[in-house]
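User: Good morning. I'm curious how adenine would be positioned relative to this chain. Could you predict the structure with it bound?
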Amino acid sequence: MWPKGNYCVLLFLLRSVLSEPGTTNQVVLLDTTTVLGELDWKTYPVNGWDAITEMDEQNRPIHTFQVCHVMEPNQNNWLRSGWIRRQAAQRLRFTLRDCNSIPWVSGTCKETFNLFYLQSEEPLPSTTRFRPTDYAKVDTIAADESFTQTDLGDRVLRLNTEVREVGPITRKGFYLAFQDVGACIALVSVKKSGRVSRHSASHGLVVSSGGERACVENAEERDTPKLYCGADGDWLVPLGRCVCSIGHEEIDGHCQACKPGFFKAFAGNTKCSKCPPHSSSHDQAATVCHCDKSFYRALKDPSTMACTSPALVGVVRKDWATENSIALSWEQVEQPPADIVDYEVKYYEREQEQLSYSSTRTRTPSVVVTGLRPSTVYVFHVRTRTTAGFTAYSPNFEFSTAAEDPDVADQGQVLVVVTASVGGFSLLVILTLFLLITGRCQGYIKARMKSEEKRRTRFHSGHVPFSGIKTYVDPDTYEDPTQAVEEFAKEIDPSYICIERVIGAGEFGEVCSGRLRLPGRMDVPVAIKTLKGGYSEQQRRDFLREASIMGQFSCTNIIRLEGVVTNSRPVMIVVEYMENGALDSFLRTRDGQFTVLQLVGMLRGIAVGMTYLSDMGYVHRDLAARNILIDKSLVCKVSDFGMSRVLEDDSEAAYTATGGKIPIRWTAPEAIAYGKFSSASDVWSYGIVMWEVMSYGERPYWEMSNQDVILSIEEGYRLPAPMGCPVTLHQLMLHCWQKEAGQRPNFTDVLSFLDKLIISPGSLLTLANDAQSLTDSSEDLPDYPLFISIGDWLDSIKMSQYKNNFLAAGYTTLDSISTMSVDDIRRIGICLIGHQRRIISSIQSLRLQLHHIQQNGFQV
Ligand code: ADE
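Assistant: Good morning! Here's the predicted structure, ligand included:
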């Protein structure tokens, strides 16, 4: 027990002032003197240290801890701090009483105490038993100056200051423990120094000896500066940091060899990675995993890439060629390591030396690549995409197109001709045909272009730019908007246009149907938008703006511009004719007449168009069923581009408080509130279009006022599933209506989700209205896995920074991550507890979804 009398002036004041990393000014993270109520500090045994509240010099209550069992032998009293976030050195200020100043205690009194620490990723549960053996010793601490009787009389405390580096700390935080073995100690404060290097996490790989600092074994120095804490608690000399060498990872401050089955190819602070599929490492400290027998990795492939067995014979044949196209086929002899998803064909003009290339995908081992230049040699590579990833590219194959025949026009598109094999794959064939009908735009085309200039030049040359993800060029960026029209729209001689009847009225004039009769070409049914007489120059520009936008697009699900008439009156915009007109009114007149699959087909078409637009960097801003046109085959196409800026023409658009005109019911909250239009806000609108389609053209939010719609959305209200709507589709709508734009799926996700539904129509059988019990029992049933790649999944949970950790560790599919544990997450180098939690909870929800999907026949 605490001795009475003059000992009671031995005040134990334990005060912790911790500071934020990277700041010059001290920020108090925890000040034990000012904490109201109980401190989260523990004593073992409970009667060893006493927590007492004292008054300081300014009469403020301060928390103190006291111990002075100098009369009793064999003292072992522990005081453990609360959990302290990882920082660098701890500065201890304390005073010790000189044993000589205390009578009768010569055999038991001590003049030192021991400082220990214990690392942990997070605060330990309060039920955790205190075990001294869990704690690592920092040092035994002794006083330079004692606290004497003389001092007592004056109440002058001569404080000792000691600095100790606690660590290496590799976890997120730690506890300090003070072991008293029978002394009278006055710890005045435990203090953190002002600035901490942002690289302090790696200081643990440093060893000190005689003032020299070096990296621990199997670590090497990096030159990123780190500040080092001097004895007075100030930050001194910049030092390099140490990182574990190749084949080694950091564990508890040491660089330990990667275990067999793991590897690390680069020095750094990352963890050893699991060997990629079909490769292994048998020894410790592997820097690469070697491919298993019969599996290979291309020389240029990174070591993180899975090994695959070659899926091609090595021969790609040219079946035939015209001046604009080449038909190729190849064989697949060996059974690939995993199921084949599709083939990727990459090609470029030999003379271009891969400055730009195109690629296209096909599900069968044949392709017809069109849109090529006559008499030109092209280089082709083919690789197979399996469920385990890509195989290596085949060697180069060079084939030439035929010489030019001036009579035949180039259609200028890449068309993937699928020669689906018959047999037991009827569903695949049906799907393939379906996909061909509702069409994805231009196959998959990707390219690096040397310059924007080059792109323009090619465009001018009358070809579809030979590859390249084209980006949308805003006509408003042209000094003279007529230039944009000239660049992106063909001028049509009005004598080729035959107007038949008026089909509607736009803001600028009538809309007619008719025929386009270009010489040497078949008649094309067209819709003709006219600009009525008496227009101003600005109105003419606004009118033609739509043409210069539309003219940049080439996609089956975007209304095609045939051309413009600007050199004579009336000024006209000529587009392809869509027999069934606007989607909303079309559906209203056909209430209940389509199968769910037909409706999903319409939605898929819109998603294809929107994916194309968002890939081009174009934000529509007015996506709504009224702005989708539908043809006689039920192909839906996105239209109405002119109004993306002004929205004057849209009767649904209302003025907002900031003066903008916005179609409130279709628009994402961030776009309404502060004009933040993006592809993500288009996704919100797409969700509303889904709802319109599934409800056969019902008005979103019925007769609620715009103001009520805004308030309801803000309060979390979302449109319920339309009658007869599959639960999976309503889930997708809800996903599109996430308040946070970043949490919504992107259009590629939407499209891939719809494709999965189409492949597995059983997933459309559970209707939302029938599924009340399902939604009730799984109130927090998570969103469906729309994210087809690990990258997309990480983006969706805002953990994009860990893409490389997953990929480097060989996790490439959602399936593969669904079994990951917290330990796995840690092992791939995700150290922050909050991030681990977020990832794990997303994986858990993913598991639930997978389970749910399995129950409902949805294929992942
Ligand atoms: N109304 C407006 N544009 C149209 C089009 N392209 N086809 C049919 N009707 C339309």
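The CA atoms of residues 418 and 436 lie 9 Å apart. The mean pLDDT is 73.
Let me know if you'd like a different ligand tried.
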